[in-house]
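Repro case for the chain-ordering regression, as requested:
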Amino acid sequence: MDDSGRFVARHVATLPKSGIRDFFAIVSKMKDAVSLGIGEPDFVTPYHIREAAISCLEKGRTSYTDNRGTQQLRDEISRYVAQYYGPEYNPENEILVTIGVSEALDILLRAVLNPGDKVLYHEPCYVSYAPSVTLCHAVPLPIRTLSSDQFALDPAALRAAWQPGSKVLVLNFPTNPTGGTADRAKLQEIAKFAIEKDLLVVSDEIYSELTFDGDHVSIASLPGMRERTVFLHGFSKAFAMTGFRIGYACGPAAVIDGMLKVHQYGIMCASIISQEAAVEALRNGRDSMLHMRDKYRERRDFIVRRFNELGLPCHLPRGAFYAFPQVSGTGLDSMTFASKLLEQQKVAVVPGTAFGAAGAGFCRASFSTSYERIHEACERIGRFMDTVQKR
Amino acid sequence: MNSVLKLILEGESLDTDQIGKILGMGPEAVERELADLRRQGILLGWRPIINPSYEAERRVRAVIEIKIRPEGLGGFDGLAERISAFEQVESCYLMSGGYDLLVVVTADNLYKVAGFVHERLARIDGVQGTSTHFFLRAYKKDGFIVNDEGLRRDQPSVSP
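-- result from build under test --
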């Protein structure tokens, strides 16, 4: 009998497993399932980027790198961020290359949170925000966002959710799973509040290149924000490089230095192969990226139209590659809807509650897949809706 | 570019009903667009892409480089059109470089290809010489990797 569970720390033992895991276990055993549950690009990494990785191996460049990442990559990141987002970061001490945004978020929270500190973030949100905060013995404070607001963060809701002891505000625009974005005016209000309450803002902008309507604005570019914002970004979504596991953080030197400590003891450095591929992506990947973005936009328009036709109200996500239809009209909660849909029609969507309580009544459907699959999935969902509505 | 054409060029095997739903038009409208594309000579036809190793057990395929003398008989075009008319000829291109026409042929076996070259091609007035190369093994065809072991087999079907 395995009773090794007694060795597991209390705060880890009580941490709920990601709701996505259970679903993955079922879907992976099912034949002929059409999955709209995939949270990564369906494109293969553009060939010239893969070639940079191959060339790195051919040249025998297989060593560790500087803890912060290679000089070349930090220089390119500095140039890229200044060009497309505005703020200028010094490659020497304000940029850190990480194992994706996941690691960047983790080490950032570990670097800045003391036990009991509070972290504000908008929900529905990426699955790891709350657990990452809990693992730091800190307190997650979710702020509900609404479909009526296209899941943008309402500054009034932020103000209402604030509590004494709040130290960090995590933002993610465009948002996984809702595709919500925040325009300049909203960000200005949020920024004003962050300054008033002396919050450190963590801005996860992993989907920023995949903004379909309007321009993406980084909160780090607003007056007075660069010195209290850590800008997190990576290559997974825009350049279809999920398996490379490569991202970065840009921010004020003292915070980056704190992150560097956690990073150097825990990780040492990101893979040199991924770093070289990332340099190529930043230098020459823009055309491929724009091509993929246009494809996502076309598929978005299709899937959103179909969901609305099928009686699943769905707002037009302004970014990322997820539709977030409301399923509560069927009389089913999101978990039951997703389970029955999988069981009866073999279509996988992710229940909105996997992204926090605010996701109740919704499901996430990724449109990062072929038209053929989206079409087939929608046909099956249509048949499912017939059985649900006849009841 | 025509939206229907764009979609079929992306290589997704969608029927007219599916194309219609994606583009927000009726299947009849899609049929009309396709008929237009045919009329304009843009869309020549449809053909499934078969794994060449499956075909290789039944047919042989060869490319033939042909040098021609363009005088008379309508010049390059006249000769190329005549050669294209043979049913064994799958494709025929006018080329720059060391020879003039590149022709892809298929036949039941090697002897039939040889017969085609000697008895048909070589007898055409204006054909000066041929060089025939047989296909041995295919690695990629029309954009498809032949022995694709599944680039994404380790990809989770649901992920955050």
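Ordering looks correct now. The CA atoms of residues 54 and 137 of chain B lie 11 Å apart.
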